[in-house]
Write a structure and sequence with these properties.
The chain has a two-stranded antiparallel ribbon. Helix 2 runs antiparallel to helix 4 and helix 4 runs antiparallel to helix 6. A hairpin with a 5-residue loop joins strand 1 and strand 2. The chain is globular, with a radius of gyration of 26 Å. The protein is built from eleven helices and two strands. Helices cover 72% and strands 1% of the residues. By secondary structure, the protein is mainly alpha-helical.
Length: 372
């Protein structure tokens, strides 16, 4: 999936001491040199600003989400484990993302991923697995909401805590195993860069194996989750609309409201995934189909679309906290309680400190009197 994408690209790679000639063949996945243009410089500055912002806001938001999901406010929330897993996966992607970017490599003067072969392989295993796991946690949420609106009497059985953890464990095992196997071609190249696609390009069987792994990765990361979401999301919306019009009984109407509130929150995550991940998924499908190097194509419209797609993909991993806050009253209430509890704790500590100081001063005064 990421073998072409994960190369240090025009806006992410080292731009000095490299001179590669682009060759539009599938077998050529070398790191390209930078083209000194005003447009490329603008994109470089955009990356330098956007990546730190997404990193800080995304990691902070995901951390708060994990804390909130473990409070009493969400103790009975059916999708809490999926939201916790999604936050962890998104955080892993955000934390590993900077190390593949140009300004980070230039700042340190070395590719930190290439300090050891094991570290190089581990980096791409974590980065790829984070992206794939994030996609499938969104799918799990969609399936849980689909079961809630279509089979409300069975959803608690199908998505019980035990079944949920088993499903998450199997998914993690499958993806971790795939990314570990995919790292067979991840090595440190002659330029001391952690390269995820070093294999014998003169060996047809090696090329075929690499392309098979590449297409499987794209399917696990984008095609499979997108197909499921495109089927599940409209079905959920249609079911909610039917509940909206079914007001024959007051109990049914109230049940609809109780169902719609968490569904709206989770639907926002599904829509965000479709909007922000689809562009980069389309880019990867196109280059894989035509068998070209993602970064060897120098057409302005394509490079622009490619870089914008990468930026939108990064937003996908850092925006969920804000979606929860905008679409869920329960989430906002839990966030308010969390912040108020912290403020109360700080105030209590501030109140206790002067009293303790006064008591110590009083004790010293009495001691002095007794001594005198």
């Amino acid at each position: 999936m990421d073998s072409l994408v994960e190369n240090v690209s025009r806006s992410e790679g080292v731009t000095t001491n490299f001179s590669y000639t682009p060759n539009l063949k599938f077998e050529d996945t070398t790191i390209l040199s930078n083209t000194s243009t005003a447009f490329n410089s603008i994109l470089d500055y955009v990356n330098m600003v956007s990546i730190p912002i997404c990193l800080v806001t995304g990691v902070l938001g995901n951390t708060i989400t994990i804390i909130l999901m473990n409070t009493k406010t969400f103790s009975h929330f059916a999708s809490k484990y999926f939201l916790i897993g999604l936050a962890i996966a998104d955080t892993s992607v955000l934390l590993t993302q900077p190390f593949k970017n140009m300004f980070v490599i230039k700042y340190f003067g070395v590719d930190l991923r290439a300090l050891s072969t094991i570290g190089c392989k581990f980096y791409f295993c974590v980065h790829r697995a984070g992206k794939m796991v994030s996609s499938w946690f969104v799918v799990y949420m969609a399936l849980e909401r689909l079961a809630a609106v279509r089979f409300p009497l069975k959803v608690k059985i199908w998505f019980s805590k035990r079944n949920t953890l088993i499903g998450v464990g199997l998914m993690m095992l499958l993806i971790t195993g795939f990314t570990a196997g995919y790292s067979y071609c991840t090595k440190i190249d002659q330029n001391n860069i952690c390269n995820p696609d070093l294999y014998d390009r003169n060996d047809p069987s090696a090329v075929m194996l690499y392309r098979l792994m590449l297409n499987t990765g794209v399917t696990l990361y984008f095609i499979g989750p997108l197909v499921i979401l495109l089927i599940a999301t409209p079905t959920i919306i249609i079911s909610l609309i039917k509940h909206e019009h079914d007001k024959a009984k007051l109990s049914q109407f109230n049940a609809k409201n109780a169902l719609a509130r968490p569904t709206a929150m989770l639907l926002s995550v599904m829509f965000a995934y479709i909007i922000f991940v689809t562009p980069i998924g389309v880019v990867r499908i196109i280059v894989n189909y035509h068998g070209v190097n993602l970064f060897a194509v120098e057409m302005t419209w394509f490079t622009t679309f490619r870089d914008i797609s990468h930026f939108l993909e990064l937003i996908n991993y850092s925006i969920n906290f804000f979606l929860y806050a905008c679409t869920s009253r329960q989430f906002r209430r839990g966030l308010t309680i969390l912040l108020c509890a912290k403020n109360i704790t700080n105030r209590r500590s501030d109140v206790r400190s002067p009293s303790s100081n006064s008591r110590s001063k009083t004790g010293a005064w009495f001691s002095k009197i007794s001594y005198d």
